[in-house]
Every structure is written in C-alpha cells, then in structure tokens.
Amino acid sequence: MSYTVLARKYRPQAFEAMTGQEHVVRTVENAIKLDRVAHAYLFAGPRGVGKTTAARLLARALNCEGGPTSTPCGTCRACTEIRDGISTDVQEIDGASNNGVENVREIRENAKYQPQRDRFKIYIIDEVHMLSGPAFNALLKTLEEPPGHVKFIFATTEAHKLPDTILSRCQRHNFRRISQAAMLKRLKEISALEKVTISESALSLIVRQSEGGMRDALSLLDQVLSACGNEPKDADVAEALGTIDRTLVNSLARALVTRDAATVLKHTEEVWNRGVDLRRLAEELAWWLRHLFVAKATGAAPEELADTDREAVTSLARDADAAQLARLFDVVHSGVWEIARAAQPKLALEMILLKALHLAPAASIPELISRVERLASGQSASGTGASGGRPPSAPFRA
Ligand SMILES: Nc1ncnc2c1ncn2[C@@H]1O[C@H](COP(=O)(O)OP(=O)(O)OP(=O)(O)O)[C@@H](O)[C@H]1O
Ligand SMILES: [Mg+2]
Ligand SMILES: [Zn+2]
After folding, report:
1. How far is the centre of ligand 2, averaged over its atoms, from the C-alpha of 49 (Å)?
2. pTM (global) more than 0.85
3. Do residues 178 and 25 lie in contact, with contact meaning Cβ atoms separated by under 8 Å?
4. Which ligand 1 atom is nearest residue 6's CA?
5. For a Cys staple, 153 with which of 55, 161, 192, 277, CB 3.0–4.6 Å?
6. Nearest-CA residue for atom 26 of ligand 1
C-alpha cells in the first residue's frame, strides 16, 4: 500500500474535528441549522489552515442524504463522493488554471441545470483571486441572481485582490492561523494515532516552524519521521528541521544570564561543529529570551511551550532579572541580521553573545538606582562593608 501523507490522512471529516477556526465553524453550523445558508461564501485566510477542508464539509452538509445537516453522515454516496472529489454535483475548480472568462461562462451555463442527484449544485473555486477581470465580471452576473439550487464557495489566500463587487455579494469568513497550543494538541493526537514516540518539546519545534499552518506542521512531521523513524530523539528532530535542540538553547541562555562566558563559547563551538546555521541559533536564542521575558512579565511561561520547556523557562526566569533579559534580547535579536550578513558568522555570533553577556545588567534598574543613591549618601553599596565607592560591577549602559 502506498504511503498517504499525514496532511491528507488527517483531513478533518467533521466540523467539530477542525482545529482552531471555531468562529467560522459555529456560524456555518448555525446557518445550516436555521436554514439560512447564503448562496455564496468566501473563505479567506493563510495557507493550510482549513479553507478547502471547510468548503468540502459545507458541501457535504448541504448535500448529505440525511441533510442539510451540520453533522453530515460521511458514509452516504453524496458524502463519500465529495470526500473523494468525484461528485458530479459538487465541482472543485482551481481558479488559478481556470481563470478566463470562458471558464466562468461554462460554469454559468452549467449552473442553469438542476443538480443530477443531490440537493444543490455546488461550485468550490479555490484561489479565486486569480480570476481575470472579465472572468470576475461574468461571475458577478451569476452571483447577483443565482438559481436556488446553486451554491458558491470561494477560497483564497489573498482576499484583498478580489473586486469589491464580488466581496459584497459573498458571506465572508476569515480563517486564522492556528494557535500554537491548539496545534500542539493536534500533533500529539496524530502522533499517538500513528504510534510515534516523540517528545512534546520536539513537537513544539515543529509547531513553531509551521507558523500557524496545519498543513505545514503535518508536512514537517512527515519529514521528521521519514528522516528519523518512529522514535525520534529531540536532537535528531532539531537537526532534521535545521533548528537547535532546546536543551542547548536553554543552557546557552542560562550561561548568558549567569555571565558564564566559557560555556557560551563552548556551546557556540558545538553548534558550529554540527554544521547548524548560526543565524538559526541566534533566532532560537532570541525566541528563548522572549519566552523568559514573557515568563518574567506575566509570572507564567508561555502556554504554547511543551511542559518540560515551560519548566526550564520558569526556572531560568526566576534566576534572571527583567532588565537583564530585555537587554540580552535586544543584543541577540539585532545580532540575527548581523550574523546573516557576516563573512565570518561564528566570529560575529561569539562577539554578539559576549557583548550581550557583558552589557546586560545583572540587577534591576530600581536596584541599581538605590545602590547609586546609597553610594552618593556615603553608605556602602552592597551593605556588606565594601568600600571605596566603586560602581556596581555591571553598569546599565542603555
Ligand atoms: N483547521 C484545521 N484543523 C485540522 N487540520 C487542518 C486544519 N487546517 C488544515 N488542516 C490540515 O491541513 C491540510 C490542508 O488543509 P486545507 O486544504 O483545508 O487548507 P487550505 O486552507 O485550503 O490551504 P490552501 O490555502 O493552501 O489551499 C488538511 O488536509 C488537514 O490535514
Ligand atoms: Mg485550499
Ligand atoms: Zn452523508
């Protein structure tokens, strides 16, 4: 049997199985229940977040033998044919390759006739923003007075390219990037179903890289599994994704916080020897510092992190100071571009990290101010009898 990629294998087969997008699902389900389904829908949003999936589910909901229903059976002929893309009454049209006026005229001609077997004739037009100007004009006529048995579902990643005349004749739903927490949960479910042993921390690396697109996340998981097998170790996953193991990133962040220059250099060397892109390391580190800062500012590590990562972040944030983290972040974050452009990335990274370590104040600003005030009033700065009016060892140089 041939291998089915995860994204296809786990395409949601019911509205309730869709991750994120609750706002869209709820409205569409209600419309079906109340028999108020619009004649044209526009599903807009980034790549791989469920637009085509939702369009097919809506088509099923409308044409299911037991429908219209918000819970199509999934087993009748209408449902299975729509799932397999072979329904005569539900046509999926790729707007990019059928973007001419003649293509729309064909749809218009065809739309006049009653559906062959099912309740509605449904046209799903993907990448609808690719239609030509004349094609849009031709479409407009049909959208204005559609026959009762016709429904349109348009999907696009670039809704801003649609003419207002089209937009105003559709019910628009904006699909969102899927939150990291929701995506992590879904990846855990799928890993369990696939009998894959992978840590939450490794999955969250995938989640971060997918930037809210579920298809991308599942493709990355495929990529990791084919590179590392069914029990991938964290470091292998990081390597397959071209990123860096979080244990190492956390250890590097700790070295910066504790001003341990030797460890900083040791880790840089390690990563360099492994052939990892050093810009990636800087990016990972900037993200990690961000997580630490969030933990410091809100009192809790970011929710999208895996439990083990959250523990690491919480514990390191406790030992760090907010001003120090802010400064470390600034230096590392602005260093990312410097490293990308550097003739000698390793040299650039080392200097950025050492600078960061040196510049970041170890104490909070109020604490520094009170030390300075105590010095000014002739008291000892540390309160332990140190004398001579020396400034704090790590002045804050903004
Ligand atoms: N909201 C979601 N919940 C669960 N899985 C999803 C979701 N969105 C996407 N997927 C997964 O990603 C795959 C692709 O989704 P889909 O084709 O619906 O995306 P799309 O928004 O139409 O993307 P494109 O803009 O590239 O056409 C699905 O088969 C499914 O596995
Ligand atoms: Mg699509
Ligand atoms: Zn059905």
Report:
1. 8
2. no
3. no
4. 31
5. 55
6. 47
Domains observed in the chain: 6-174 (3.40.50.300), 180-240 (1.10.8.60), 246-360 (1.20.272.10), 367-398 (no CATH)
Predicted local confidence at residue 146, as pLDDT: 87
CA distances from 160 to 94, 171, 202, 327 (A): 18, 15, 36, 39
Maximal CA-CA distance, the chain: 95
Q: What is the pLDDT of residues 295-335, one digit of tens each?
A: 999 999 988 787 788 899 999 999 898 989 999 999 999 99
Best of 47, 52, 176 for a ligand 1 pocket test (most atoms within 8 Å of beta carbon): 52
Which has the minimum average pLDDT: 3-7, 49-53, 251-255, 307-311? Answer: 307-311
Query: What 3-state DSSP class applies to 255?
Result: helix
Least confident of 116-120, 203-207, 230-234, 302-306: 302-306
Pocket test for ligand 1, best of 215, 216, 221 (most atoms within 8 A of CB): 215
User: pLDDT tens-digit profile of 288-297?
Assistant: 999 999 999 9
> Dihedral angle at the C-alpha atoms of 224, 229, 231, 232, nearest 10 degrees?
-40
Give the residue, 244 or 302, on which the prediction is more confident.
Answer: 302
The pair phi, psi for residue 119, each rounded to 5°, is -70, -45
Q: How many Å lie between the centroid of ligand 1 and the Cα of residue 311?
A: 32
Q: Which ligand is nearest to the Cα of residue 46, counting in written order? A: 1
* Residue among 267, 334, 328 at smallest CA distance from 296: 328
What is the whole-number distance in angstroms between the Cα of residue 51 and the centre of ligand 1? 6
Q: Rounded to whole angstroms, what are the CA distances from 82 to 9, 10, 59, 337?
A: 15, 16, 7, 48
pLDDT of 120 above 60: yes
Whether 215 lines ligand 1, by a CB cut-off of 6 Å, is: yes
Atom of ligand 1 nearest to the CA of 47: 25
* Cis check: omega of the bond before 68, within 30 degrees of 0: yes
Residue 175 Cα: closest atom of ligand 1:
21
- 73 conformational bin, left if phi > 0, alpha if psi -120 to 50, beta if neither: alpha
